[in-house]
Design a protein that fits this description.
The chain is of the alpha/beta class. It has 3 domains: 237 residues, Rossmann fold; 76 residues, Tyrosyl-Transfer RNA Synthetase (Orthogonal Bundle), CATH 1.10.240; 70 residues, Structural Genomics Hypothetical 15.5 Kd Protein In mrcA-pckA Intergenic Region, Chain A. Helices cover 47% and strands 14% of the residues. It contains 17 helices and 13 strands. A 6-stranded mixed beta sheet has the order 1-6-5-2-3-4, with helices on both faces. Helix 10 links the parallel strand 5 and strand 6. 36% of the residues are buried. It catalyses: tRNA(Tyr) + L-tyrosine + ATP = L-tyrosyl-tRNA(Tyr) + AMP + diphosphate + H(+). Pfam families: S4, tRNA-synt_1b.
């Protein structure tokens, strides 16, 4: 299998005519590389930045997202934060909505064919995408594009001509394709087109730098190759780590339920951030916090000397809540979290009406929306995680009489129930 890391030697810009590095470009490189997984190729990006500084022409920075779901979570903001930093350095950031490629379906990291979305699903999801991304990016300085602009125009003839520029052998070098091919798992022909279409986006936009998660590395490198084939200077590639979710194991994903949406209420966002493990806290600080690395290093040293890591986690949670809401919301979320930790009942809990008294505790918890099933509800009772008006429920056979009361599951789930 080809080692694309060798591109660091094979496609660097010529040494002749190379500009001497300046302090401002070195600072820009430090910002670009913070928290990044890999930069291909650093010497090329250095020269691009130096040329930009000399001629006053900003670099074109591309990020493509397929609107496969309508909501963005903190995992998405790892790369969006980097885009904002590049934007603040004065470069042009292009927020590319993959409305065309979504109909193919990116197979990255998958061992089965991913069902393509319909045009209706894509349009519905795309409605909220940029509005949410603008919570991180400067919307007024962001170029919004849809890849259907140029992909639709290709037509059958253009698609065949594009396909002729890349070999099946090179496409099958992609790790997930290789594994599926060896395992005899079906690979549809349309999936092989996805890396080509994403690469062609870079040609159409004349991208200087493309960002993506580590799972996108192959696709981003295809963009480099196609640009060279079309006579363009190849883009550089910056891959960002995939942020683990609240479980600390799987990458953050709405489908896995381990996510923190950037539109979540302040109290929920704060509580979820406080639930991450102490070791994972450092990962979140590195990838999500805007604090200087030196300050984070001081936090580490303080914890090693005995400071409670909870103090640092509170600072992280307040920073994130303030970013997506406000300082007042962050302070209120901390007060709410502390109140719950002391066993207090929050003010803003849902009010639920349930019928069927007397009702078994399992059914009551399910109908109140606090547990997904009666079996899960009864398991929570066994673990001592269910309270009615602050009193622990220990009897799984409990029949609850009509009345109004506060029902609690765990530390964060509450409902003010009226049972008739």
């Amino acid at each position: 299998m080809t080692d694309h890391s060798q591109e660091k030697q094979s496609v660097t810009l010529p040494v002749s005519g190379a500009l001497p590095i300046t302090s401002s470009v070195q600072n820009a490189l430090d910002i670009v590389k913070r928290g990044a997984e890999e930069l291909l190729v650093e010497s090329e990006l250095t020269q691009k930045l130096l040329r930009s500084e000399k001629n006053g022409k900003p670099l074109r920075i591309k990020l493509g997202l397929d609107p496969t779901a309508p909501d963005l979570h903190l995992g998405h903001t790892v790369v969006l934060n980097k885009m904002r930093q590049l934007q603040d350095l004065g470069h042009t950031v292009i927020f590319l909505i993959g409305d065309f490629t979504s109909m193919i379906g990116d197979p990255s990291g998958r061992n089965v064919t991913r069902p393509p979305l319909t045009r209706e699903q894509i349009e519905e999801n795309a409605k909220t995408y940029f509005a949410q991304a603008s919570m991180v990016l400067d919307a007024a300085k962001t170029e919004i594009r849809y890849n259907s602009e140029w992909c639709d125009q290709l037509g059958a003839r253009g698609m065949i001509q594009l396909s002729s520029r890349y070999t099946v052998a090179r496409i099958l070098e992609r790790e997930d394709f290789t594994k599926r091919f060896k395992d005899g798992t079906p690979i549809s022909v349309h999936e092989l087109l996805y890396p080509l279409m994403q690469g062609y986006d870079s040609v159409a936009l004349q991208s200087d730098l493309e960002l993506g998660g580590t799972d996108q590395k192959f696709n981003l490198l295809v963009g480099r190759e196609l640009q060279k084939d079309y006579g363009q200077e190849p883009q550089c590639v910056l891959t960002m780590p995939l942020l683990e979710g609240l479980d600390g194991v799987e990458k953050m994903s709405k489908s896995k339920g381990n996510y923190i949406a950037i539109t979540e209420p302040p109290n929920t966002m704060f509580a979820k951030l406080m639930s991450i493990s102490d070791p994972m806290m450092w990962r979140y600080l590195e990838l999500l916090s805007f604090r200087p690395l030196a300050e984070i290093a001081q936090f580490r040293a303080a914890v090693e000397q005995g400071r409670n890591p909870r103090d640092i986690k509170v600072l992280l949670a307040q920073e994130i809540v303030e970013r997506f809401h406000s300082r007042e919301a962050a302070e209120g979320a901390l007060a709410d979290f502390d109140n719950r930790a002391r066993g207090g009942i929050p003010d803003d809990i849902a009010e639920v009406e349930v019928a069927g008294a007397p009702l078994g505790i399992g059914q009551l918890l399910k109908q109140a929306g606090l547990c997904p099933s009666t079996s899960e509800a009864l398991r929570m009772v066994e673990q001592g995680g269910v309270r009615i008006d602050g009193a622990v429920v220990s009897d799984k056979a409990l029949k609850v009489e009509a009345g109004s009361f506060v029902l609690q599951v765990g530390k964060r789930k509450f409902a003010r129930v009226s049972l008739a």
